[in-house]
Amino acid sequence: MPNDRNREPRALRMSRRRMLKGAAAVLGALALPGKDASAAVWEAFLRRNFREMTARDKARVVARLEKEYEAQFGKRVKVAVTPPIEGVLYGYGLDLHRCIGCRRCVYGCVKENNPSRNPQIHWIRVLQMKKEHGVDLEEAAHYYNPSKVPEKEFFYMPVQCQQCERPPCVKVCPVQATWKERDGITVVDYNWCIGCRYCMAACPYGARHFNWKKPGLPAAELVTETHYLGNRPRPVGVVDKCTFCIQRVRNVPGRYPACVEACPVGARKFGNLLDPESEIRYIIANKRVFILKEDLNTQPKFYYFYAT
Amino acid sequence: MRKAWEFFKGTLVLVARGSTAYYAWILTLLFLMAVGAAAYVYQLRSGLIVTAMRDQASWGLYISNFTFLVGVAAAAVLLVIPAYVYKWQPIKEIAVLGEMLAISAIVMCLLFVTVDLGRPDRIWHLIPLAGILNFPQSLLAWDVVVLNAYLALNLVIAVYICYKHYHREEPNPNFFNPMILFSIPAAVAIHTVTAFLYNGLAARPFWNASILAPRFLASAFCSGPALMIILFQLIRRYTRFEIREAAIFKIAELIAYAMFLNLFLLGAEVFKEYYSGTIHLAPMHYLFFGLKGHSDLVPYIWTAMIMNTTAFVLFLVPRTRENHLTLNIGCVLIFIGVYIEKGMGLVLPGLIPDVLGEIYEYSPTRIEILLSVGIAAAGLLVYTLLLRVAIPILAGEFHVGDDGVTPVIGDTKFIH
Known about the structure:
The complex is a heterodimer. By secondary structure, chain A is an alpha+beta fold. In chain A, 27% of the residues lie in helices and 15% in strands. Chain A has a 4-stranded mixed β-sheet. A two-stranded parallel ribbon of chain A has the order 1-8. In chain A, strands 3-4 form a two-stranded antiparallel ribbon. In chain A, a hairpin with a 5-residue loop joins strand 5 and strand 6. Mean pLDDT of chain A is 90; it is low at 1-13 and 32-37. By secondary structure, chain B is an all-alpha fold. In chain B, strands 1-2 form a two-stranded antiparallel ribbon. The radius of gyration of chain B is 22 Å and the shape is globular. Chain B starts with a helix and ends in a 7-residue tail after the last strand. The model of chain B has no long low-confidence stretch (mean pLDDT 94).
């Protein structure tokens, strides 16, 4: 089931769009004066899934969002809708031999992606594993807190979205609010998600996170360079997740995700799987890589390896 | 058209009239619903943070109740088969009461799913054409389809039976029989689809067992009928409607078979997990014995186990099955036992320990409990109003007058 095919013939989509626009206009006209229930509010309510939008629709939605964010944070926010770059399929490498469990990646990610600070949402979770157990999730410690890392008897395994080629979350979403883009990144339309959390039950990597409360994001910490499918501020009651920093890697080809930049020991690698010269292809060719829970056949594009 | 309108007006009069006991019951339910509504408003304004659910245990009491109630709804089929396929008179007289219970249960199901949503304002995204229903890929999409179809089917059947009875006519077999026959696979379908919703997730080994759908059906045919037996006795005692002993004992006998199957399948599951002893044992071990010092669910599941096995014995032995005291004890035990086993006992171990091995112990907050009670009250109100019309019709207290149009209402009390 490819999920980037057109779901329906164009004619139907056009008529549906017209129908919804008409409905928005009618409801806007019905709205009581003095309330802010203008046509724009109804339009926001009756908008469509991002994948069905024309370029014009996107421009209007982006303009509306930017206005909304400016009102909320008092800062100009830019929401990009940059499409995937042709001939690119992102892949990630993580060197377990190097990782020291310092969690700088976790906070680098928080700083870049505008997640809720209160309650805290982290897209990366670093697991502390006993060396004698090897990779054993049942034995992993999630909340280790020594004064200094690394500790001698442990190694560390960061886990985040594995950007599966066969993502179970996409399969189960009842409204197609989450899908895999052509460059291999699984994204969420935060304005289409209904918050049923079925994808969270389906994800084998604990990579999907829910906004249980209106995200607490101080304006001072807001990053203003955003992408519609990535780090723009999230509404309450929807799921969000790691997108390989889609706002970075799409807007500036070759740029690294924040976690890659934050890693002090160079344990994190990133590149284009379709480019034989890329860093990630070098790792796959020369190091022995493995993927997490390979028995589930989710085919992650997130490769763990031991460099030495 | 005029006939239908007069009938409808008659039902409104019926619903508005009743004894003091009837009014007290309705007011109690409305009060509980108001409490639930207040809890829901509070949850909407604060976000789902007011529940005990978190990223690790992303579903809780609401989805547990939903799962259990789908089983209650599916159980109506246990009356439909003997009544309409085997044309067994004692059950045929009361089958419509089972269908109405299914209607109320599905209404509760839909409410539980709705209050669990993070964005109920976007529920229209599920409506094909207006939104996008991810059918046939998502099992949740399947569930939306089959639950609504089953609700519509039972509504049509129940209303049609009552309407015909009221006019003292026989149902038209060409219209009625296909619907009745279709409601049998539909009942199996709603519970199978709900089981598949869990079963299809490879990420959750506790749910990812092929035995899940059969187990769901077996337990559904215990809990739903147990509730029916209790309700039928109440109806028999407090209204002027006769329900034969034979019908009740037959349902109890069917429960005994279903409970045997339920326990047998559970045993098969337990054997496989414990004997092979893989890492996938963790959730089951957490459920039955606790894991790494976390054992919130242990007392509950053992309570359920003891209740279910005790009830099984009570229902298996004809002497205790046909003694009203032990029969009712058995019904209560089964209802609570299956509620635990197919609610929190099924949903939570799927999520605890989570996919990265973390144990977050979930137990519902007061808001979740109040909201659930409110929804249960809504379901009981739906059932009460349906019965308020159906029972006088079946008892011959509400029927069309000699002119073939005006309703005649003999029953003004309902609960006496």
